[in-house]
Amino acid sequence: MIKEMADDEATQATNDDASECKRYAVQLGYWSDPFINFFVRQTARKPPEINRGYYARVKGIEVFIDKFLKYSGGKGQIINLGAGFDTLYWRLRDAGCSPQNFVELDFPNITAKKCYHIKKHKQLIDKINTEDGEIKFSTTDFHAANYHLIGVDLRHISELSNKLVQAEVEFNIPTLFLAECVLVYVDSNAASGLLKWLAEKFPNCIFVNYEQVNMRDKFGQVMLQNLRCRGCLLAGVEDCESLETQQRRFTISGWQGSNAWTMVEVYDSLPESERKRIERIEMLDERELLTQLLQHYCISVAWNGTMFKELSIAQG
């Protein structure tokens, strides 16, 4: 139990790392996010390959968010698993394309910090939809008309089920699940249990997952060792062996179909004009290092229902 708690703390610390990386890339102009600075203070310089990697990550995930919003006509819901300090809710509100409901889940320690930042900044509160009643919040949870931030351990299905009901989740409407480097920190059996439960409960949904891949080669082993040195043991790394294992984790858990792409493929699929723009922001001395990095991350998607069948990374 003590070991598990230590692992959880190291896993939660990765939220700070990812948020700081996104903050720095936004500061340089890789993409626009006027809300990230409310959650993350000024951060240290990051290498160009890290900034480009985060650009590909954010923009690649956006492709599927845009498709979901288009397919569901704004009548669906987004559930962000292990949301950390993600600002997607506010960015969608700012763009005028919010879903019907938006739910963020993470460890209570993380959601407590996020609640604090939200309550502290009027700019964040003002963007939250309060048309249908008042905002309700505790130390770790925050509930408004179409936004819910909830502290929960995703390994505990019964608790998760209760929390989703509190967040006014409707199980039969189109649903998008997001997970960025979340499942890899969950024991494979617990992750499988979670995916099976979601597949059974949500008949019309997609799951967009960003995390490591190709972890058996030399570069992947170095990545693993670096994470282990920080206390992150990657309990679910066996599902990150290849694109095939990434897809199979969903299909053996009851999802109707799945697909996966390395971040090299995702980066190359993004509009050429945008790639040229961001490549002018910083000089990249070693293109090979970026390629290696992108080869060891992927976006995988899975779906239930005919609305989202055969999703691809292609734009539009």
TrEMBL record:
Alphabetized PANTHER family for the sequence: LEUCINE CARBOXYL METHYLTRANSFERASE, LEUCINE CARBOXYL METHYLTRANSFERASE 1
A GO CC annotation given for this chain: cytosol
Annotated function: Methylates the carboxyl group of the C-terminal leucine residue of protein phosphatase 2A catalytic subunits to form alpha-leucine ester residues.
Catalytic reaction annotation: [phosphatase 2A protein]-C-terminal L-leucine + S-adenosyl-L-methionine = [phosphatase 2A protein]-C-terminal L-leucine methyl ester + S-adenosyl-L-homocysteine
Organism: Fopius arisanus
GO MF terms held by the record: protein C-terminal leucine carboxyl O-methyltransferase activity
UniProt superkingdom: Eukaryota
Descriptive protein name: Leucine carboxyl methyltransferase 1
Similarity annotation: Belongs to the methyltransferase superfamily. LCMT family.
Enzyme Commission number, as recorded: 2.1.1.233
Keywords, sorted A to Z: Methyltransferase, S-adenosyl-L-methionine, Transferase
InterPro entries found in the cross-reference section: LCMT1, Ppm1/Ppm2/Tcmp, SAM-dependent_MTases_sf
Recorded name of the encoding gene: LOC105263421
Binding-site positions, S-adenosyl-L-methionine: 57, 82, 153-154, 180
An example Gene Ontology biological process: methylation
